[in-house]
Design brief:
- With 212 residues, this protein is of the alpha/beta class.
- It has a six-stranded mixed sheet with strand order 7-6-5-8-9-10, with helices on both faces.
- The radius of gyration is 18 Å and the shape is globular.
């Protein structure tokens, strides 16, 4: 499954590797990879692969799940599609409570004690997923964990999840992606150590020198 999803993401350029010409993140970090998993929604075959994978992960790792909650905004569509497959309720959590109406932050009926899984598209530092989980906990939900399409496996993200007592399972991850990408000619095999060095310390740009 992990290899198939990695292949899908590369094929539609939802994940784009460009180590020789790095992207610049909003933080200023130079990155060899750019992720836009929203593109999976526009490809019917890839979309089906992704949603079926997420549904299987929930069934396997969180069999008690009663409801899925998407992160805003990237996780909303995936939560809806997965909920349809599993035939369970869904909702989503806003970044902040609305400033009008009922001032909701949680959209959808989530009663206290409901066993919930958070659906996220991408895990890097895990900040948005943790914020959603904590908002749900504050409302009385029992957060079983997180499912995501892709995970970098960054130390900062893993530590944040551990700190908040959260488990994440992903349809694919950075290491598998690099393996598939090198095998199919997207990147050279010799570039993999440098790309892993980026993942292990994104703020250290010395990985770019290792490509030379």
């Amino acid at each position: 499954m992990k290899r198939r999803i990695a292949r899908d993401l590369l094929k539609i350029r939802a994940v784009f590797l460009r180590p020789e010409e790095p992207f610049t993140w909003a933080s200023g970090i130079k990155s060899p990879i750019y992720c836009d998993n929203r593109l999976t929604l526009s490809d019917v075959e890839v979309r089906d692969d992704v949603e079926q994978a997420l549904a299987k992960l929930i069934t396997r790792h969180y069999p008690e799940c009663e409801m899925v909650m998407g992160t805003s905004t990237a996780g909303i569509a995936h939560a809806a599609l997965v909920a349809d497959i599993l035939e369970i309720p869904m909702g989503y959590v806003r970044n902040n409570a609305k400033d009008h109406g009922r001032n909701n932050q949680i959209e959808g009926r989530c009663e206290p004690g409901t066993k919930v899984v958070v659906v996220e598209d991408l895990i890097s530092t895990a900040g948005s997923a943790v914020d959603v989980a904590e908002a749900l906990r504050a409302a009385g939900a029992e957060v079983l964990g997180i499912v995501s399409i892709f995970s970098y496996g960054m130390k900062a993200g893993e530590e944040r999840l551990k700190e908040h007592g959260l488990k994440n399972v992903s349809a694919t991850n950075y290491d598998v992606l690099l393996e598939v990408a090198s095998g199919e000619g997207y990147i050279s095999k010799k570039s993999i150590p440098a790309l892993k060095a980026f993942r292990d310390n994104p703020s250290d740009e010395s990985w770019m020198n290792d490509l030379k």
